[in-house]
Specification:
By secondary structure, the protein is an all-beta fold. The chain is built from two helices and 55 strands. The N and C termini lie far apart (64 Å).
C-alpha cells in the first residue's frame, strides 16, 4: 500500500464513524421518539394499524392509524424477558426472546394483551415467522423448529431441521427461508407439508447472514460483520480495514443481497450493495423491510445505523440515505444498536437500544400487507424421533416435553423433561426404565442434579428447588431460590452441585452464579460468571484439587478458574488469555488432579487452576480417536471416575463413548448418531444415561 493510499484509507475509515457518509436527508426526515416508549427496544412488527414493539422486558402495542402520531394501547410487561423478534398473525403475537424461548401473546384486544403460553424451544429462540397453524423459530446452529400453534394455550413441537446458524426466518407460499449467521448462507426449505419438511437449497451470502424479507419475486437478505464467500482483497473497503489494523474482511460484510426467487429452490443473486465497514460484537441483528409505495428497502444494521437502499434497479442497488442514533458512551461508534425497523405509511419506525422506538418521516415509505400464501399442511404431525433399540432402552413422558437433564440416585433416575416436569424412573433389574412417580406441584423442570440424598432442580418460573430425598418419591423441600440476586424473579434453567456446600445455578439470560449453601435455607450469592451467549452447560460439573478449583468455559474467549476456598469468594481467581474452548466444547472433572477439556475433536488435561503457559502458547490438545463415519465428533464431556468419558453434541446429535483408562491413549468404545438433541449424560454402572430432547431418556444396553 502506498503512503497516499494508506492515509486516504485512514481518512475514509474515520469518515465511517465521524462524517457518516450517505446521511443525505433525501428520504428520511427528523426522528422523534414515540411517547411512552422505553429506552431499550429491539423488535418491531406491523399488522394493520398496530405496531408491536419489544421494549426491554415488555411487548407494547401502539395504534398507528395516524402514522406519525403513534398512541400506546396496551402492553404485556415484565414477563417475556428480552424480545428479539416479533411476528403477528390476526392479532396473535409470536415473540422470540432468546434464552427466554417463545411467547404467544393474545393482542386481539390491544388495550388488554395477555400471555397465552410460553413454549420451551430447543435452543436460543431468535428468528420467528408464522403461517396458518405453524410457527417457525430460528435457533442458531440447532436450526429451525416447527411448532404447532393451532391451540395458542398449548403449542406443540412438530420437528427440528438443522441449519448452519439460523438467525431470521421468512415463510412464503410453502417455502421457508433462513438467514444463517456465521457461515453466511441462505438456507431454503420446502415447508408445504409438515410430514415432509426438507432442505432444497443452500446459497452463499456476502456477509454474516441474518434478516430475510420477501416481496414479489425477490428476496432481500441483510448481512453484517465479516465478508463471507468472496475475496476480501477485492472488497471496496478492504484497504480501510487494513489501515485500521484489522484482519482482511473484518468489519466488512455489512450490506444487502438481492435474490430473484421465481424458482425458490434456485435463488439467483441479482444485486448487492455494501455499507461502510464497522465491527462491534455483542449485539448483532440486521433487518430489511420493503415499502408498498416504492422500491426503497429500509435496513437496520445494528451499530452501523439505518440504511435506505434504492432497489429500483435490482442489479445496481444504491444507498440513498442513512440515519444513526449516536451513543454518548461510545462516540467512536456510528450508532446505538438499531435492532429492527418497520415501514409505515410515510414513515419508518426504528427500535434502538438506547433511545427506544423512534418514528421517522420517510419519502416513498408505505406499509406492506404481508401475505403468506398457502399455509403449511399437517400441523398436527409430530416427528417420531426413533431409537435404535439394539443400543438403548428409551423412555418418553406422556406429555410432550424435552428430556433436558438426568440425575441418578441408586437405581432411580430423576428425569427433567422441561415443560413435562420431573419424572421418577426405576432402572429395572433386567434392563429398561419404568416410571414410578413425579414431582408434584411444579409443572416445569429443566435440569436436575443429585448430591448424596439431596436433589436440586431448576424449575423455570418457580426458580430453583432444593429437596431432601427420604425415599425415591419422598420430596421434602428444604430450600428454594426464586432470584439469583438481581431483585427480580428469575427463570431457573440449569443447576450444578460442584463441591460440598456449593451450588451453581443458571437462569436464562442471568449467567451462572455460585452460591454458598452451607445454610440451605439461606443460600448466599458468591460469584457470577456469564455464559457466552448463555446456552450450553459451560460450568464444570465437579471441582478438582480437593474440591477447590472450578472451571468455567467462557465459550470462544477464555477459561475461568474459581477458587472455592477464597474468603470471601468474590470473583474469578484467574482466567486464561490465549487458551479457550468453544460453543460445542466443554470441561469436566476427570480426576482430582485433572480437568478434561475438549476442543473440536481434541482433548486436553488441565491441572487445577492451570493458566496459559508462561510463553503464551496454546495448550497441547491431542486428537480423539476417530469415529466410524469419519466426521468430526465434539461435545461436552462427562467422566465416570473410573476411566470412561462420554461426549454429547446436542447441535449435531452425536454421542461418543471412550475408554480413558490410559489417559494418553483413549479408545473409542461406542459412537451413536441419535435422533434427538442430547444434553450432558451421567453414568450408571458403566453405562450412559442420556437426556436426549424429544427422543426421551436413553439408557445404554
Amino acid at each position: 500500500m502506498t503512503k497516499t493510499l494508506f492515509f486516504a484509507a485512514l481518512a475514509a475509515g474515520a469518515a465511517v464513524a465521524g462524517d457518516l457518509p450517505c446521511k443525505t436527508g433525501a428520504v428520511l426526515g427528523e426522528a422523534r421518539r414515540i411517547e411512552g416508549s422505553g429506552n431499550k427496544a429491539m423488535a418491531l412488527y406491523i399488522e394493520g394499524d398496530r405496531l408491536y414493539a419489544g421494549e426491554g422486558p415488555d411487548v407494547v402495542i401502539y395504534d398507528i392509524s395516524s402514522p406519525l402520531e403513534p398512541k400506546r394501547l396496551g402492553a404485556v410487561t415484565g414477563v417475556v424477558g428480552s424480545p428479539r423478534q416479533i411476528a403477528v398473525q390476526k392479532g396473535m403475537a409470536y415473540v422470540t426472546a432468546r434464552e427466554n424461548a417463545l411467547w404467544i401473546i393474545d393482542a386481539t384486544d390491544p388495550a388488554n394483551p395477555r400471555v397465552r403460553s410460553r413454549f420451551d424451544t430447543c435452543e436460543l429462540a431468535t428468528g420467528v415467522d408464522v403461517a396458518g397453524d405453524v410457527c417457525f423459530v430460528g435457533q442458531r446452529q440447532n436450526g429451525v423448529e416447527f411448532i404447532d400453534v393451532s391451540n395458542p394455550d398449548d403449542p406443540r413441537h412438530i420437528a427440528m431441521r438443522k441449519t448452519d446458524e439460523s438467525q431470521s426466518v421468512k415463510y412464503l407460499n410453502g417455502i421457508l427461508y433462513s438467514g444463517d449467521w456465521g457461515s453466511g448462507k441462505l438456507t431454503v426449505f420446502d415447508a408445504h407439508d409438515m410430514k415432509n419438511i426438507r432442505q432444497i437449497g443452500l446459497y452463499p451470502l456476502y456477509g454474516f447472514g441474518d434478516g430475510v424479507w420477501v416481496k414479489g419475486d425477490y428476496l432481500y437478505a441483510s448481512t453484517g460483520h465479516h465478508l463471507k464467500n468472496r475475496n476480501a482483497a477485492e472488497h471496496t473497503y478492504a484497504v480501510e480495514i487494513a489501515a485500521a489494523g484489522k484482519r482482511p474482511g473484518e468489519g466488512c460484510g455489512h450490506g444487502l443481497d438481492i435474490f430473484e426467487i421465481k424458482d425458490p429452490a434456485n435463488p439467483k443473486r441479482v444485486g448487492h450493495v455494501d455499507y461502510p465497514p464497522f465491527y462491534q460484537r455483542g449485539l448483532d441483528m440486521w433487518t430489511p423491510r420493503t415499502s408498498s409505495k416504492s422500491d426503497m428497502v429500509f435496513c437496520s444494521a445494528t451499530h452501523n445505523g439505518l440504511f435506505v437502499v434504492d432497489c429500483s434497479d435490482k442489479s445496481a442497488p444504491k444507498v440513498v440515505d442513512r440515519w444513526v442514533a449516536p451513543d454518548p458512551k461510545h462516540p467512536e461508534w456510528p450508532s446505538q444498536c438499531i435492532g429492527s425497523v418497520a415501514v409505515g405509511d410515510g414513515c419508518v419506525y426504528v427500535a434502538t437500544m438506547g433511545s427506544g422506538v423512534n418514528v421517522i418521516p420517510a419519502k416513498g415509505a408505505g406499509k406492506e400487507i404481508v401475505k403468506k400464501g398457502v399455509p403449511p399442511k399437517n400441523a398436527s404431525f409430530r416427528e417420531a424421533y426413533p431409537t435404535d433399540e439394539n443400543e438403548f432402552y428409551v423412555w418418553k413422558p406422556e406429555q410432550v416435553g424435552q428430556a433436558r437433564g438426568v440425575a441418578v440416585i441408586g437405581r432411580v433416575v430423576y428425569a427433567a423433561c422441561g415443560d413435562a416436569g420431573l419424572h421418577v424412573l426405576e432402572i429395572l433389574p433386567k434392563g429398561g426404565l419404568r416410571k414410578i412417580g413425579e414431582l408434584k406441584g411444579h409443572a416445569h423442570v429443566y435440569d436436575v442434579v443429585a448430591d448424596g440424598r439431596r436433589l436440586y432442580t431448576a424449575e423455570g418460573p418457580d426458580g430453583f428447588g432444593f429437596y431432601e430425598m427420604d425415599g425415591p418419591l419422598k420430596f421434602r423441600e428444604v430450600g428454594r431460590l426464586t432470584s439469583l440476586g438481581k431483585g427480580k424473579k428469575d427463570f431457573g434453567f440449569w443447576v450444578w452441585a460442584p463441591a460440598p456446600g456449593f451450588l451453581g445455578l443458571s437462569a436464562r439470560s442471568g449467567g451462572n452464579v455460585i452460591f454458598d449453601i452451607s445454610d440451605i435455607k439461606n443460600p448466599k450469592r458468591q460469584v457470577s460468571v456469564s455464559g457466552c451467549p448463555g446456552w450450553d452447560k459451560f460450568l464444570m460439573d465437579k471441582a478438582i484439587g480437593g474440591g477447590r478449583y472450578l472451571a468455567h468455559n467462557a465459550a470462544g474467549h477464555h477459561i475461568d478458574w474459581i477458587d472455592l476456598e477464597a474468603k470471601p469468594l468474590a470473583k474469578v481467581c484467574a482466567s486464561t488469555a490465549k487458551n479457550c474452548i468453544f460453543l460445542s466444547d466443554g470441561i469436566c472433572r476427570f480426576s482430582d488432579d485433572k480437568a478434561l477439556a475438549t476442543r473440536g475433536d481434541t482433548y486436553y488435561f488441565a491441572a487445577p487452576g492451570e493458566l496459559d503457559p508462561p510463553d503464551g502458547s496454546l495448550w497441547a490438545f491431542k486428537k480423539l480417536p476417530p469415529v466410524p463415519d469419519g466426521k468430526k465428533v465434539q461435545g461436552i464431556p462427562r467422566a465416570s471416575g473410573d476411566g470412561l468419558v462420554v461426549l454429547t453434541d446436542r447441535i449435531r446429535r452425536r454421542v461418543a463413548l471412550y475408554d480413558f483408562k490410559d489417559p494418553e491413549n483413549p479408545k473409542l468404545i461406542k459412537f451413536w448418531n441419535v435422533s434427538g438433541n442430547p444434553d450432558t449424560a451421567v453414568f450408571y454402572k458403566g453405562k450412559v444415561v442420556i437426556p436426549c430432547g424429544y427422543q426421551g431418556i436413553l439408557m445404554q444396553k
